[in-house]
Amino acid sequence: MTNNNSESSPRLVAVSNRTAYGSPRAGGLAVALSDTLAETGGLWIGWSGKIFDVPRRRVLNVDEDGVSFALIDMSKAEYEGFYLGYANSVLWPVMHNRLDLAVFDSDYFAAYKAINRQFADVVAAQTTQDDLIWVQDYHFFLLAKFLKDAGCNRRTGFFLHIPFPAPEVFRSIPDHLTLAAGLCAYEVVGLQSSHDCANFARYIQEEIGAEKLDDERFRIGDHILTLRLCPIGIDAEGFSLSATSQAANDASRKLARFLGERDLVIGVDRMDYSKGLPQRFEGMAVLFDKYPDLHGKISFTQIAPPSRSVVEEYAQLRQQLDELSGRINGDYGDLDWIPIRYLARGYERDELAGLYRLARVGLVTPLQDGMNLVAKEYIAAQDPDDPGVLVLSQFAGAADQMTDALIINPHDRNAVAEAVRTALNMPLAERQRRWRALYDGICRQDINWWREHFLAAFDTAEGQY
After folding, report:
1. CA distances from 365 to 272, 289, 326, 397, 431 (A)
2. pLDDT at 315
3. Which residue blocks in 4-50 are alpha helix, DSSP H?
4. Residue 260 Rama label (left phi>0; alpha psi -120 to 50; beta)
5. How far is CA 270 from the centre of its chain?
6. Which residues touch 99 (CB under 8 Å, ≥6 apart)?
7. Of 40, 148, 224, 257, which sits most exposed with the smallest number of CB within 10 A?
8. Same domain flag for 124 and 249
9. Distance (Å, rounded) from C-alpha 41 to C-alpha 34?
10. pLDDT at residue 11 above 70?
11. Are 29 and 117 found together in one domain?
12. Which helix (H) or strand (E) holds 138?
């Protein structure tokens, strides 16, 4: 799959919950998939985004920007059971080590299986044996198994964008063996970090008797599974250009008027309990408490657009952040200084790039994250002559690659505070050295490297297609 010649490469078929159809492909996964799909005359299968009162088995086939799409509708009951239920109330919390938030409901799993089977039926109907099927993320653990059970032989790969937890945690899911059998039906499984790969390898060896053949391959019965460490990247050079665009400059000027001479500390995250936002706010409160000399000298801006706002845990998180920011500003603020600016809205890619470039410190402190591309975007946006400093959680997949960041434990409020202070006081030469190492790394292993590294696993993968 390393040959980009569309005459010699198989057609790529991507499967994901959402597609890029009808929306700007500003970066990341959408660009990586769209480029390859266009090169191979590929197909992207996913949910249409439409919800109806009753099930509809319509598949809408459309073309956009050289890519074909097959879009599938969902009923309200399917959406609630599959997406809000199993995907986001079972798999998401468990995979992020939040068993306390998981809701194990057998009806949710029935809906999950039904949607996976429906998508598998569409894949079978719209592809040939020569195609290569690349399935994205935790919504579709079972798709390859359903294909094979139906006698539909396809080369299938799966990439998990979120963490794979320790076996002891994954076993807490009542249906874990069914999910594992689904994953092991793929020819290639890609994971974000060495820790994720170790967890998955240990699980399949302990639970289903997988035999390790070498660093990547496992035998499961008569099937060979290739497990590939494949951390996702960004378009680093493109994002660097975005940071000096007109929209970026406009956004940074707007914020600079508010900042004055203060240093900016920035956080950008979806509003999700895995991102460690309350702990981050509390860490900043410790900073203001321990170092009064910083009062009025820095400003922390947290951008946190709402995510899955219909799920109760997310509404509770927003209320918690509202209360924390209000208390911290009340305790430490002054007539001419607001310590925390908390913005529950989203911004365009170029605007964010401009804000990252302005920030002296990028605060990326998730409690658990498959990768965290904000960390890479922050580095890509920096001015090489006067770069900011990245403070990064040890529990983000990005910490594997970005060892020249200031790596901290996000549960330790004092560690958060001390890292921010260290970053603010870091000499220019050290900032430049750390930034150069980080930037070179994200350029080497960018989004195109990720795509090619995953697809190259099929060159040597064994198995019956």
Report:
1. 12, 20, 21, 11, 19
2. 83
3. 29-39
4. left
5. 10
6. 93, 169, 172
7. 257
8. no
9. 10
10. yes
11. yes
12. none
CA–centroid distance for 108 within its chain: 23
Kindly list the catalytic residues.
161, 369
Query: Residue 5: is its pLDDT beyond 50?
Result: no
Q: What is the CATH number of the domain that holds 252?
A: 3.40.50.2000
**Measured distance CA(190)–CA(370) in Å, rounded:** 12
Strand order in the sheet with 340-343: 340-343, 298-303, 263-268, 361-364, 389-393, 406-408
pLDDT above 70: percentage of residues in the chain: 94
User: Six-digit token pair at 150?
Assistant: 């139906």
Other Cβ atoms less than 10 A from the Cβ of 59: the count is 17
Better-predicted residue by pLDDT, 24 or 151 = 151
CA distance 369 to 165: 11
pLDDT confidence of residue 121: 97
281 vs 340: CA distance, rounded Å = 8
The first and second tokens of residue 194, run together, are: 């060495």
Gap between the Cα atoms of 55 and 73, Å rounded:
8
CA distance 349 to 23: 13
Q: Is residue 167 part of a domain?
A: yes
pLDDT digits (tens, 9 = 90+) for 413-444: 999 999 999 999 999 999 999 999 999 999 99
Q: Is the pLDDT of residue 249 over 70?
A: yes
Are residues 273 and 191 part of one domain? no
Would 2 be classed as within a structural domain? no
The number of distinct structural domains making up the chain is 2
Residue 24 has pLDDT above 60, yes or no: yes
**14 strand-pairing partners:** 44, 134
Rg of the Cα trace of the chain?
23
- Record the tokens describing residue 431, joined without a space: 């900032």
Residue 419: which H helix or E strand, with range?
helix 413-425
Q: Residue 292 sits in which domain range?
A: 236-444
Which of the 8 DSSP states describes residue 337? B
Residues 251 and 110 in one domain: no
Mean pLDDT of the chain: 93
Q: Residue 55 has what pLDDT? A: 87
